[in-house]
UniProtKB/TrEMBL annotation, chain A:
NCBIfam families tied to this protein: CPA3_mnhG_phaG, PRK12674.1-5
InterPro entries: PhaG_MnhG_YufB
Name of the protein: Multisubunit potassium/proton antiporter, PhaG subunit
Bilayer-crossing regions: 6-27, 39-59, 71-89
Molecular-function annotations in GO: sodium:proton antiporter activity
Source organism of this protein record: Psychromonas ingrahamii (strain DSM 17664 / CCUG 51855 / 37)
UniProt keyword annotations, A-Z: Membrane, Transmembrane, Transmembrane helix
Automatic annotation (TrEMBL), chain B:
Pfam families xrefs: MrpF_PhaF
GO cellular component, one term: plasma membrane
Subcellular localization(s) per the UniProt record: Cell membrane
Protein's name in the database: Multisubunit potassium/proton antiporter, PhaF subunit
InterPro entries, A to Z: MrpF/PhaF-like
Membrane topology value: Multi-pass membrane protein
Keyword presence, tRNA processing: no
Lineage: Bacteria, Pseudomonadati, Pseudomonadota, Gammaproteobacteria, Alteromonadales
PANTHER family, per database record: NA(+)/H(+) ANTIPORTER SUBUNIT F1, NA(+)_H(+) ANTIPORTER SUBUNIT F
Keywords, in A-Z order: Antiport, Cell membrane, Ion transport, Membrane, Transmembrane, Transmembrane helix, Transport
Length: 121, 89
């Protein structure tokens, strides 16, 4: 493996793991359910995508032919992460989780907050 | 150089998994805990791919793909349970 490719793979690995760590810090530190939902669903996808691209480059060079198996995981994550985030946001609205008063666009949640929460009973 | 990069990445993703576990323990509501589990399976995919890179064998990819599939199915099942009170109606 040439030095240039090794540098590219190393930079992609470290960059991807730093982005993943930033997403998890956001999940741990943000004050509000909907801001916490926002942080990891984007950052983890980008970080894991970087790591999968690094793995694709490494194994393509190592095995001598183009290896696109990891692209399957990347495409699957790109498709399913927004769907999972949408379902989690709907579950949060249904549960009437507490919002901070400076969270933006609160009027959009007003209609969903009219019904009775499962926790209120 | 590549082995050092893999070790550094493993450390950073381990920190990320620890933060997710922290949110899983303290999470004030049930949806918070579901987000923590959802993020944990995505990070564990990265950890398994890093193990495959470290050992130089491409056969860990099947395990990562299996975790990706079952993780999405479990997240949607949890959300369905919260929304409807039942998974298969």
């Amino acid at each position: 493996m040439s030095v240039f490719l090794e540098i590219v793979v190393s930079i992609l690995l470290v960059l991807g793991s730093i982005v993943t760590l930033i997403g998890s810090i956001g999940l741990a530190k943000f004050p509000d359910y909907f801001t916490r939902l926002h942080a990891p669903t984007k950052a983890s996808t980008v970080g894991v995508g970087c790591i999968l691209i690094a793995s694709m480059i490494f194994f393509s060079v190592e095995l001598g032919h183009v290896n696109l198996k990891e692209a399957l995981i990347s495409i699957f994550l790109l498709i399913t992460a927004p769907v999972a985030a949408h379902m989690l946001a709907k579950a949060g609205l249904h549960y009437k989780v507490n919002m901070k008063e400076n969270t933006q666009n609160q009027h959009l949640a007003k209609k969903a907050y009219l019904h009775k929460s499962p926790d209120d009973e | 150089m590549l082995s050092y990069a893999i070790l550094i990445s493993c450390g950073l993703i381990g920190c990320a998994l620890a933060l997710n576990a922290w949110r899983l323990i303290i999470g004030p509501t049930t949806p918070d805990r579901i987000i923590a589990v959802d993020t944990m399976y995505i990070n564990s995919i990265a950890l398994i791919i890093l193990l495959g890179l470290y050992q130089g064998s491409p056969s860990y990819y099947e395990g990562a793909l299996l975790i990706a599939l079952l993780g999405f199915v479990s997240t949607s099942a949890f959300c369905k349970y919260l929304l409807r009170g039942d998974i298969i109606e």
